[in-house]
Amino acid sequence: MKFLKLIIPVFLISLFVVNCKNKETKKAEIEKVEKVNSSKKNLDIITSFEAWKKNPVPLISAHRGGPYPGFPENAIETFNNVAEQASVVIECDVAMSKDSVLVLMHDNKLNRTTNGEGPIQDKTYKELQGLKLVDNEGNITEFKIPTLDEVLTWGKNKVLFTLDIKRGVPFEKVIAAVEKHKAIDYAAIITYSVNDATLVHSLNKEVMISVSAGNDGALEQIEKANLPADKLLGFVGTRQPELTHYEKLKEKGIKTILGTLGNLDKSAVAKGDDSIYLTYIKNGANIIATDRPLEVAKVLNKQ
Description:
Elements: H1 2-42, H2 49-54, E1 59-62, H3 76-83, E2 88-96, E3 102-104, H4 125-129, H5 148-155, E4 160-165, H6 171-180, E5 187-190, H7 194-203, E6 209-212, H8 216-224, E7 232-235, H9 243-252, E8 255-259, H10 263-271, H11 276-283, E9 287-290, H12 293-301
Parallel strand pairs: 1-2, 1-9, 2-4, 4-5, 5-6, 6-7, 7-8, 8-9
Antiparallel strand pairs: 2-3
């Protein structure tokens, strides 16, 4: 009896302490979820190029989808990680398997970004599905190489895309996939020559096209090709252009992309000053293409 008298109060106190801890844990979990949901609600999500052109707020383009530790480039899981934290344009790379399936992959070979080897065009889609993606730190993840079909399905009403078509992949095949998914208004095509831009425009008059527009010569070629300005995203390069060049593009009605990926991103990190991205926007960039999408988003969201 003495033992029971001693043990019962101790047991009741333990139950009380455990119950309090459980309540605190549940409260913390609820607050965490509410915080995440609140941040999502506050995001001004842009999912239509046509709507954006009417109100061209600054946009962030996540180069190769915005890889971070644990999240490899050109993976849907990586796109989702970034999209849950910022309104972004997902820049990704479209390659093709041996059996003509459109998949995402930047390099010609699989060695760097997967646990496989050899040229991607030598592998069938089934063989590619047996591989795992590797992040930029060299860690093997559980993520698979996605198809363009899967990516366009995932991205509807979540993000905008700029699709970088790798060598040997027919523009016709990519445009057909974009049309099939009714993604014309949220998936732009990246080109590296006015001839390619003209071809893409001939395939679909409504699709947005990224075209090199970093100097006067490029602008003259665009004008000669009679490409509609409202369907163009002028890539001005990876160095800050003169303010007068931005003015020329603005006068023509062409929205601009500045590539900070590379030196400009590295400079911001070295100086420890991300406010420079605000200067790029102020100078005339409509879209910043960066390897640091989440860091840039924090700066732009403070405007």
